[in-house]
């Protein structure tokens, strides 16, 4: 198994599984998995999350116990729908707050694109993921329509709840329900507002639709990503009126704004926005009393449980398990490992995986080649190959790399450059010398995400490059770290336009992340 995926299991604490929730400590996923939604089909739990402009998009994680997770698939492997004609979907746009469901033998994923509308992606008939996915369908066009979730009722009808993005719709803090065709792919009765949160629950969003004991339930956060709380709405009618309660708040804990949750069995999943590292995933126990959900302990988040006795002491556990303190990719396969995501739509000309089929030759000959791609600047380049950073721990990212620019480009103002990158709303690069020699490049990141940059020719003696850089989050996502290779965009009247008909490249022998604190 890929070591990164093994680490995800280790970070969630590999305890013995019990009938309901096994021993665990929060966060169960200390990486940026924003707006998680979870279902269980048979013995498997499946999670998807907001991937925004990143590709593969709508990644899907699988778990057998609801605590330890592995990335197994992506419903959008190459392109964000609606942006196929572009190199990249704009940062912060694309896939917002998906909902995953299983109905009549198919998986359905709904998500909102705030600039286009509500999409649905449906799988082939199957009970397991990975699987084949159909092309995305635009179910409901409309600017500012976000956070959709379907509900197939016992009478065969299908309903969809969604929220509004104030930045696009000029309206928010309310929820609407519409009726869909039985297959869930088109609207047959348009929106009706069913909840107005302006007075007591502003910025209500991220609704999840359920039915239990004759009640329709909408679980949704309100109050904002950094300061809000979880609501539960219930009604005997799908269109309301809905009564509401706050069912999870920060209270006396350090878990700010438990947000955008998913209810499955006796589990409730939500994220916590921790700033630069993004939105990390927590798990809370859930029981029912008087047809209302009771989440956490005294409606506050818990740090974890042991056999349903909580809270546990976080000091009993450490994400720095020595067995899993190093994440390394040697690029031994002809497909990229799932922890990597492109900053824009995937194109074949971005990269080449030179993985040997002869296992005896792999250590000497396997590498990833990243070709330079035209970009106005590195901030907007679509071919950045990035990975999430861990929360609440220092780490180092090191790679053995070799940069081979085209000889012609080095003689003119037109330039190619490549190396390592820390990417967010502001980015900093660590360029590799363009001498076609192997170099070691390293970025040290402190627990507060202060980054320092180093180069070495032997991997032993290091020289610091430039000044430290304070990493910052991206647009709705955490900061990322990875690899880049770009070349200057030439105008049509440039005398060097003829030099733009091929690409230099960066070879990456291996890439390694070591947790250091």
How would you characterize this protein structure?
The protein has about 525 residues and is mainly β. It folds into two domains: about 5-320, Tachylectin-2, Chain A (5 Propeller), CATH 2.115.10; about 325-515, Jelly Rolls, CATH 2.60.120.200. It has helices at about 5-10, 165-170, 360-365, and strands at about 25, 35-40, 45-50, 55-65, 70-75, 95-105, 105-115, 115-125, 135-140, 145-150, 160-165, 175-180, 185-195, 210, 215-220, 230-235, 245-250, 260-265, 265-275, 280-290, 290-295, 305, 325-330, 340, 350-355, 365-370, 375, 385-390, 395-405, 415-425, 430, 440-445, 450-455, 465, 470, 480-490, 505-515. Strands 23, 25, 26, 29, 32, 33, 34, 35 and 37 form a nine-stranded antiparallel sheet that branches. Strands 24, 27, 28, 30, 31 and 36 form a six-stranded mixed sheet that branches. It has a four-stranded antiparallel sheet with strand order 2-3-4-5. The longest helix is centred in the first third of the chain and has 9 residues, at about 5-10. It is globular and about 70 Å long. Residues about 1-20 and about 315-325 have low confidence and may be disordered.
């Amino acid at each position: 198994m890929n070591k990164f995926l093994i680490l995800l299991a280790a970070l969630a604490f590999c305890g013995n599984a019990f009938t309901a929730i096994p021993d665990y400590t929060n966060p169960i996923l200390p990486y940026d998995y924003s707006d998680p939604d979870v279902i269980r089909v048979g013995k498997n739990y499946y999670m998807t999350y907001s991937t925004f402009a990143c590709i593969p998009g709508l990644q899907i994680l699988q778990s057998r116990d609801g605590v330890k997770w592995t990335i197994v698939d992506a419903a959008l492997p190459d392109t964000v729908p609606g942006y196929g004609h572009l190199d990249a979907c704009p940062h912060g746009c694309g896939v917002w707050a998906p909902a995953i469901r299983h109905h009549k033998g198919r998986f359905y994923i709904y998500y909102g694109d705030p600039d286009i509308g509500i999409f649905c992606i449906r799988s082939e008939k199957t009970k397991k993921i990975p699987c084949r996915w159909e092309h995305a369908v635009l179910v409901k066009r409309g600017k500012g329509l976000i956070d959709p979730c379907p509900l197939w009722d016992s009478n065969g009808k299908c309903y969809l709840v969604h929220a509004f993005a104030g930045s696009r719709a000029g309206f928010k803090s309310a929820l609407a329900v519409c009726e869909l065709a039985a297959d869930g792919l088109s609207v047959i009765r348009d929106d009706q507002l069913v909840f107005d949160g302006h007075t007591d629950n502003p910025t209500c969003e991220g609704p999840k639709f359920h039915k239990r004991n004759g009640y329709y339930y909408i679980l949704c956060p309100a109050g904002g990503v950094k300061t809000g709380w979880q609501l539960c709405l219930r009604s005997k009618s799908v269109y309301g009126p809905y009564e509401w309660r706050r069912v999870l708040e920060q209270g006396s804990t350090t878990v700010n704004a438990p947000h955008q949750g998913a209810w499955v069995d006796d589990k409730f999943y939500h994220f916590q926005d921790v700033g630069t590292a993004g939105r990390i995933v927590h798990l809370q126990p859930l029981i029912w009393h008087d047809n209302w959900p009771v989440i956490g302990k005294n409606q506050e988040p818990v740090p974890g449980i042991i056999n349903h006795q909580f809270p546990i002491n976080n000091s009993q556990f450490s994400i720095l398990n020595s067995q899993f303190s190093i994440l390394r990719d040697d690029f031994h396969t002809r497909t990229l490992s799932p922890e990597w995501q492109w900053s824009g739509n995937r194109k074949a000309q971005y990269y080449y995986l030179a993985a040997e089929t002869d296992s005896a030759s792999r250590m000497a000959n396997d590498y990833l080649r990243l070709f330079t791609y035209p970009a106005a600047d590195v901030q907007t380049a679509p071919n950045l190959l990035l990975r999430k950073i861990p929360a609440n721990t220092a780490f180092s990212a090191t790679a053995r790399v070799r940069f081979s620019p085209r000889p012609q480009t080095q003689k003119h103002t037109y330039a190619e450059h490549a190396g390592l990158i820390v990417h967010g709303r502001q980015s900093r690069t660590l360029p590799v010398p363009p001498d076609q020699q192997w170099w070691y490049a390293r970025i040290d990141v402190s627990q507060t995400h202060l980054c320092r940059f180093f180069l070495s020719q032997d991997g032993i003696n290091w020289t610091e490059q430039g000044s430290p850089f304070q990493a910052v989050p991206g647009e709705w996502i955490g900061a990322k770290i990875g690899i880049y290779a770009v070349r200057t965009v030439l105008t049509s009247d440039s005398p060097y336009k003829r030099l733009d008909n091929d690409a230099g490249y960066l070879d990456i022998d291996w890439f390694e992340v070591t947790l250091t604190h």
